[in-house]
Write a structure and sequence with these properties.
The protein has a single domain, classed as Aldolase class I (TIM Barrel, Alpha-Beta Barrel). It has helices at residues 27-35, 77-87, 103-115, 140-153, 168-181, 222-235, 251-260, 269-274, 278-293; strands at 5-7, 10-12, 16-18, 41-42, 59-62, 65-68, 94-98, 120-124, 158-162, 185-188, 192-196, 198-199, 204-205, 213-217, 242-245, 264-267. It is α/β, with parallel strands linked by helices. The protein is 35% helix and 19% strand. The structure holds ligand RRO.
């Protein structure tokens, strides 16, 4: 089955791709994504300067999900700006994820990266792991001020990666911001920030940074991810493409994201745990679900979730 999808006019050969952060920091990792069945190459969120990130251990997988506090390890935007033109040879979209510690950082990176012509830019407003730095996406005014400046310097399709919201009022407020800014797609959701995982045998936290607090991902966050995909899909009347992220372990999970309104699906924890073969497995599983249910393509079931 053809699992291709189109987002903001960009065609993806498959609707399944890596989530920013998952196996996408180095040249080697990005090229491996290029050779894999991933439908796109999404970069790690990049900062102005290269970063080592937080002290290790900073990622921990467990039955049900993962917790991380990576702290933005990346090569710095100059390295990605050089790499992006080379990644085009894989003939799939390249999505540059950008981050920063100030509005100026975001603008500097966005400008230079836009000139390297990625197919899309994803603005990360939702890193939960920098000590002392709040998640921008939880502050509507800061988000609007920042996005308006970034929008001016990005001419390729520009999307926003948002944190999970737990109250409809926050989603409605963010929709009004996004309408005023004019974004081309959304990636929902980033990890569920500031969770805590405890090892009762060792009576200890499982990651080192921030006293063990970190972003949760994987199966356990799927209902939160689906709720955000569905809420934003409805608030935008199905007119803004959404990339669903969170809790995709099987093809059936990806199908659930599509039903809620996603046009494509990103894979984080499962990709980290299972490796690049994940994409081929999920492709087969998703195609089998769609075929069994009589859907001819991912877009045929988009948003079709029934309500009682
Ligand atoms: O690098 C990280 O710690 C990180 C980032 Br930038 C993000 O957006 N989400 C996440 O779970 N970890």
């Amino acid at each position: 089955m053809d699992l291709s999808t189109t987002i903001a006019g960009v065609r993806f050969p498959s609707c399944l791709m890596n989530a920013a952060g998952a196996r996408c920091v180095t040249r080697e990792e990005l090229e491996a994504l290029g050779r894999s069945h991933a439908g796109a190459i999404v970069t790690k969120s990049m900062t102005v300067e290269p970063r080592q990130g937080n002290p290790e251990p900073r990622y921990h997988g467990f039955p049900g999900g993962s917790i991380n506090s990576m702290g933005l390890p990346n090569l710095g935007y100059r390295a990605y700006a050089q790499l992006i033109p080379e990644l085009r040879k894989f003939k799939k979209p390249v999505m540059a994820s950008i981050a920063g510690f100030s509005d100026e950082d975001f603008v500097t990176i966005a400008k230079a990266i836009n000139e390297s012509r990625p197919d899309l830019v994803e603005v990360n407003l939702s890193c939960p792991n920098i000590p002392g730095e709040p998640q921008i996406g939880y502050d509507a005014n800061s988000s609007e001020r920042l996005l308006k400046r970034v929008r001016k310097v990005v001419s390729v399709p520009m999307g926003v990666k948002l944190p999970p919201y737990f109250d409809p009022a926050h989603q409605e407020k963010m929709v009004r911001v996004l309408e005023r800014v004019g974004v081309d797609f959304l990636s929902l959701i980033n990890s569920v920030g500031n969770g805590l995982v405890v090892d009762p045998d060792k009576e200890c936290v499982v990651i080192k940074p921030k006293g063990g607090f970190g972003g949760l991902g994987g199966a356990l966050i799927k209902p939160v991810a689906l709720a955000n995909v569905r809420a934003f899909w409805k608030l935008f009347g199905g007119r803004l493409p959404i990339i669903g992220t969170g809790g995709v372990v099987t093809g059936a999970d990806a199908f659930e994201h599509l039903l809620c309104g996603a046009s494509a699906v990103q894979i984080g924890t499962t990709l980290v745990e299972e490796g690049l073969g994940t994409f081929e497995r999920l492709e087969k599983e998703l195609a089998a679900v769609l075929e069994k249910k009589g859907y001819a393509s991912p877009s045929a079931c988009r948003g079709a979730l029934r309500e009682l």
